[in-house]
Amino acid sequence: MSAVTPARPAVTPDSNAPVRPSQPTGTGVAQTPFPGTSAHRTTPLTEAEAPEGFRRPRPRPAPRRTPNPAVSVIVPTRNEARNLEIVLPAIAAVRPAVHEVIVVDGNSTDNTVAAARRTLPWARVITQTRKGKGNAMACGFTAATGDVIVMFDADGSADPGEIPAFVSALVAGADFAKGSRFRKGGGSDDITLLRKTGNAGLNGVANRLFGTAYTDLCYGYNAFWADLVPQLELPDPAIPQPEDGSMIWGDGFEIETVLNCRVAAAGLKITEVPSVERERMFGETNLRTFADGTRVLRTLAAEHRRAERRRKGSGYAR
């Protein structure tokens, strides 16, 4: 593992940490809007304003930073039924055991929801409130009840066996554990030379703009302490999909770059964790080399402007 921002003290034992069940049940959406984080408003939606079927969570203990954190794994899906039959049991087999697995479905048409419930009955299966990977992640983040949140793609390219390494990086003092295919011990069975070259260029832009030392900006296997969710300021999941079909900023595939930019701009401690990317098991990738590269560049520019505005205004909480 390699730190890319100055070190902070490691987590100290918390004797008052709550005891949590190892396998929670339930399939309803349990979500709390982030105060002041909507792209369109500065207060959470009321019950009357929330979309039909959107349920507020019951009160629960705040997430804690403990030496033995409860881990929530968020798996965004869209037509990944065959992959989930392999991925979900592999996540469930991780030791130490994860606290919960949340499958966030994007209105799949291939029996993804049924496959998830059949394959891992104790997984929580929810439906995202709008469209886009970013919205799916935000729905999963707000539904999570663990102390640590792990972002995990459903295509089988990520190795669940690496989850303990991400958690260890957080317990050792990191706020955000960033997967990297280019650190010693990492690698990829899937990346092409063109994508690798493009990724290196994007890393350079991000590092120059945000003062980081990222080696793998575009890799989506990450973990972070759940108490950081409000600082990420993602769009409120309860906001309805815009009538014109447009996407709210942060709802799309720009989500991973948005997160990397915001944790850096907030001055949080980031540690890169070596990770090996495997080939997608079933289905076709949604990656588009040139279109996605352009999207990342636009995201970096937009997030840098946002960070500059905030620095000149109220600033990030540190």
Automatic annotation (TrEMBL):
One of its GO terms (molecular function) is transferase activity. Residues 1-70 are annotated as: Disordered. Pfam families: Glycos_transf_2. Keywords: Transferase. Residues 72-214 form the Glycosyltransferase 2-like domain. CDD domains: DPM_DPG-synthase_like. InterPro entries: Glyco_trans_2-like, Glycosyltransferase_2, Nucleotide-diphossugar_trans. Belongs to the glycosyltransferase 2 family. This is Glycosyltransferase involved in cell wall biosynthesis. It comes from Pseudonocardia sediminis.
